[in-house]
């Protein structure tokens, strides 16, 4: 789902069910899960969520 933030001209994208950035499995948000923050060249920030530390490590090696 995309929506516009009227205070700033920024597009916010949300996933109904968060999925792992590496394997695309659904993430259990009732427990801790690893996240990596990436800053793009334009200054925007992207959060990459992972189902576990193994997927986070595999994604980081790519």
UniProtKB/TrEMBL annotation:
Pfam families: DUF7576
InterPro entries recorded: DUF7576
Name of this chain's protein: Small CPxCG-related zinc finger protein
Species of provenance: Haladaptatus paucihalophilus DX253
Species classification: Archaea, Methanobacteriati, Methanobacteriota, Stenosarchaea group, Halobacteria
């Amino acid at each position: 789902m995309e929506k516009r933030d009227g205070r700033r001209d920024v597009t916010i994208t949300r996933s109904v069910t968060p999925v792992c950035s590496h394997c695309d499995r659904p993430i259990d948000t009732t427990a801790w899960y690893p996240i990596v923050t990436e800053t793009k060249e334009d200054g925007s920030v992207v959060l990459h969520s992972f189902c576990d530390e193994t997927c986070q490590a595999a994604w980081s090696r790519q």
